[in-house]
């Protein structure tokens, strides 16, 4: 029996919460979410995962959407306490890819079936708006049937607009925390929760398919903090949600904190699927870095996207946002997905609400 906020839940009560969340897309009380996420009963977990998987298949069938991930710079101006790319990490060997190397990476991704390229970097001022627009335009010209997703951090609204006009379709910017007090436990004073959230609203207003999310079981995080993020995402309604467990990096202020719980991460993924049934949810590399079984379990828990790293081999270990980052081969990922009776989808994999918009832009 769980006791939360002076209200007692039986296991039967918590099972019923799963069905309420699936039917209504939300729960009436914060204490309901606490009970659901805190319950350690394996049968309840299986029930939650099965409902999330059923909703996923109802919306998307058995498709898993493939993305080609290109990590093109590990320079970053920020000093986030959890990230190995932080500016204060003097031990990291830095790199930047040229436009030619980025296009070569796209070619590798296209060859395995990726029809979305995800360009990710630290907040690196070397790549001006003109350079980013040129890269996006070159990709769209060479691969007109493909989508481009950017993950470059916080920019001005004008910059986001320029990238969009150059052909970028999606933007990933995890909020990490929409609650200023907790946000500041993860970031230095020079960074602002308010600015991060404003960037997300700017992206949405411009017309991007927007992805956000957060680390699960990160330092100092409580279940109530997780509920705050679920509330934000229900309000924001992102088209993509990235969720992974916190994993420490040896050269950060959080180096001594234990890695986050994969089981809790899977429960949060399932809850998000029931809240946002049409969202595109990746089985993240962070889960695969804890164990490949964890990433496979994410597909059985509501995830329906996988990113395959198509960056040059020489740069992959240098993009070390946390220790022991997985670099699973495409063939292994495909076998793991097939073992669940799922299939990789060779398409852009747009959020359904954006099909008409993207058709008009082609």
Would you mind describing this structure in some detail?
The protein has 362 residues and is α/β, with parallel strands linked by helices. The protein is built from 15 helices and 10 strands. The strands form 2 sheets. Strands 3, 4, 5, 6, 7, 8, 9 and 10 form an 8-stranded parallel sheet that branches. The chain has a two-stranded antiparallel ribbon with strand order 1-2. Strand 7 (209-216), helix 9 (223-236) and strand 8 form a beta-alpha-beta unit. Helix 1 (11-24) packs across helix 2, helix 3 (42-60) packs across helix 10 and helix 6 (157-166) runs parallel beside helix 8 (193-206). The longest helix has 19 residues, at 42-60. It starts with a strand and ends with a helix. 46% of the residues are buried. Mean pLDDT is 94; it is low at 1-6.
Short descriptors:
alpha/beta; 362 residues; single chain; disordered N terminus; eight-stranded parallel β-sheet
């Amino acid at each position: 029996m769980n006791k939360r906020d002076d209200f007692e839940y039986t296991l039967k009560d918590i099972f019923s919460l799963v069905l309420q969340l699936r039917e209504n897309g939300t729960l009436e009380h914060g204490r309901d979410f606490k009970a659901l996420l805190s319950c350690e009963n394996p049968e309840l977990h299986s029930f939650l995962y099965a409902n999330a998987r059923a909703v996923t298949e109802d919306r998307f069938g058995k498709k898993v959407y493939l993305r080609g991930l290109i990590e093109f710079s590990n320079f970053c101006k920020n000093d986030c306490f959890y990230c190995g790319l932080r500016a204060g990490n003097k031990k990291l060997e830095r790199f930047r890819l040229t436009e030619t190397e980025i296009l070569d990476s796209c070619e590798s991704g296209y060859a395995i079936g990726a029809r979305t390229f995800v360009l990710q970097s630290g907040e690196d001022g070397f790549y001006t708006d003109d350079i980013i627009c040129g890269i996006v335009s070159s990709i769209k010209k060479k691969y007109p049937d493909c989508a481009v997703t950017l993950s470059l951090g916080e920019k001005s609204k004008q910059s986001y607009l320029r990238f969009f006009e150059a052909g970028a379709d999606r933007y990933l910017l995890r909020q990490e925390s929409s609650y200023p007090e907790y946000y500041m436990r993860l970031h230095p004073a020079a960074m602002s929760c308010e600015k991060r959230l404003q960037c997300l609203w700017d992206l949405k207003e411009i017309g991007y398919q927007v992805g956000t999310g957060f680390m699960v079981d990160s330092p100092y995080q409580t279940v109530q903090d997780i509920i705050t993020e679920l509330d934000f995402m229900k309000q924001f309604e992102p088209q993509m949600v990235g969720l992974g467990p916190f994993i420490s990096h040896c050269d950060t202020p959080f180096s001594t904190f234990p890695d986050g719980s994969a089981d809790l991460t899977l429960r949060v993924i399932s809850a998000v699927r029931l809240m946002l049934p049409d969202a595109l949810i990746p089985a993240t590399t962070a889960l695969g870095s804890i164990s490949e079984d964890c990433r496979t379990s994410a597909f059985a828990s509501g995830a329906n996207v996988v990113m395959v790293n198509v960056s040059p081999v020489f740069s992959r270990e240098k993009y070390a946002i946390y220790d022991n980052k997985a670099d699973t081969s495409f063939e292994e990922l495909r076998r793991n997905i097939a073992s669940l009776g799922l299939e990789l989808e060779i398409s852009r994999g747009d959020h359904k609400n954006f099909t008409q918009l993207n058709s008009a832009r082609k």
